[in-house]
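Subject: design request, 423 residues
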């Protein structure tokens, strides 16, 4: 099927349920592979980008997964041509945006989605960019009932849905509010893509003040809690009995969880706190991790260090090979503690959130399931009472419906200890 051809849609619906924007990039290809492997013939979807030759090459590769992929439509759209973006977005119920850095090429998709009434999800971890999107588009999207949902990849679905899961268990099963949750990385084997490195470099060099604000994604009028700066030094996690070091992903995951709490009216707890860290085997290893993180941050702030070491870093469009990804995995332990109450000690709730895939493969799984939530699960979302319209988070836009879909896709989200008294 030629580029820009449209599919036949039943009952006057839009031609596509999902369009993958940025399909030729590293993450975009993985998203398309996920759709080809699990959902070819089950949903109407198309691939979009600015280079028809590269799109055809991706489609040729997808045919090896499922021969029916030869009919996946290709749509040519360029971020510098808003008319082509508008035409693309108007054809689908949900757009999956994978082309970054989003600060450079993402706003045109959000703008079109709000105007065209198209739900949107992406794989960004760019908190400064999302902060700007919130301030510019939240009210308009809310008025039009359009869901704009960033952070739908491995950043930051595990943190956001995991924290919501623990807090919801406390509320519904224990009848308690939550004082704090800490997401502790207990397993992580992963590589980095060139796109991720470019994005981090752009954020650190231009938006360090925004990144440092622990509540930068909260509504401007929202009250602030007592969460402070992200962990930068070794610390002992007493509920797990382990030494931890800083986790770079916490710089955006924590902000997403705090926005979920704020959007829901601070129902998680009276002064709910959320932090993230990385479990290490000893105090010495936690110190070594701290030094490594300090070097990484210096690398992204220094053009000299990037020039000196950048030759060994992956370039945009490059990333871990299929073999390297096959060895990847990750796991969080979500440690929650209830608020103190008269006559009742605080209760600890522990949950596991993990996947036997590397973070990039998990990202493809999570953003596809997020898009399918908004396209195919409207009745379930309405029944669940989740929020509708605005720049939302995975937990506030999809909550229990996304949780169920992720479990069905093989992601672990389960209680370890449903409630033990804190010592």
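Subject: RE: design request

Done. Sequence follows.
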């Amino acid at each position: 099927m030629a580029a820009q051809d449209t599919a036949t849609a039943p009952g006057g619906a839009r031609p596509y349920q999902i369009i993958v924007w940025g399909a030729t990039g590293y993450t975009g290809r993985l998203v398309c592979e996920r759709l080809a492997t699990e959902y070819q013939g089950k949903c109407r979807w198309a691939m979009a980008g600015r280079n028809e030759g590269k799109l055809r090459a991706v489609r040729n590769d997808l045919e090896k997964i499922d021969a029916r992929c030869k009919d996946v439509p290709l749509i040519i759209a360029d971020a510098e041509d808003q008319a082509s973006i508008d035409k693309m977005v108007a054809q689908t119920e949900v757009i999956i945006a994978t082309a970054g850095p989003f600060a450079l090429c993402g706003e045109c998709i959000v703008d079109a989605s709000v105007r065209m009434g198209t739900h949107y999800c992406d794989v960004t971890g760019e908190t400064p960019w999302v902060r700007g999107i919130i301030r510019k588009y939240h009210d308009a999207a809310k008025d039009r009932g359009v869901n704009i949902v960033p952070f739908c990849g491995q950043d930051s679905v595990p943190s956001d849905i995991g924290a919501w899961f623990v807090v919801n268990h406390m509320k519904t099963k224990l009848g308690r509010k939550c004082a704090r949750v800490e997401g502790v990385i207990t397993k992580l084997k992963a590589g980095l893509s060139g796109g991720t490195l470019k994005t981090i470099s752009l954020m650190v060099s231009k938006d360090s003040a925004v990144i440092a604000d622990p509540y930068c994604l909260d509504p401007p009028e929202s009250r602030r809690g007592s969460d402070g700066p992200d962990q930068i030094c070794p610390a002992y996690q007493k509920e797990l009995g382990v030494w931890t070091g800083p986790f770079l992903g916490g710089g955006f995951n924590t902000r997403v969880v705090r926005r979920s709490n704020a959007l829901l009216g601070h129902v998680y707890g009276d002064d709910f706190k959320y932090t993230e860290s990385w479990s290490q085997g000893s105090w010495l290893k936690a110190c070594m991790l701290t030094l490594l993180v300090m070097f990484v941050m210096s690398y992204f702030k220094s053009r000299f260090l990037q020039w000196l070491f950048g030759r060994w870093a992956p370039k945009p469009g490059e990333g871990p090979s299929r073999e390297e990804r096959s060895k990847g995995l990750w796991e969080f332990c979500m440690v929650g503690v209830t608020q103190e109450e008269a006559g009742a000690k605080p209760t600890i709730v522990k949950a596991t959130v993990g996947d036997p895939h590397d973070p990039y493969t998990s990202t493809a799984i999570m953003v596809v399931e997020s898009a399918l939530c908004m396209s195919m699960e409207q009745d379930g979302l309405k029944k669940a009472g989740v929020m509708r319209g605005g720049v939302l988070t995975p937990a506030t836009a999809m909550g229990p419906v996304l949780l169920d879909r992720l479990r069905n896709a093989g992601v672990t989200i389960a209680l370890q200890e449903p409630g033990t008294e804190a010592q």
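Residues 23 and 274 are 34 Å apart (CA to CA).
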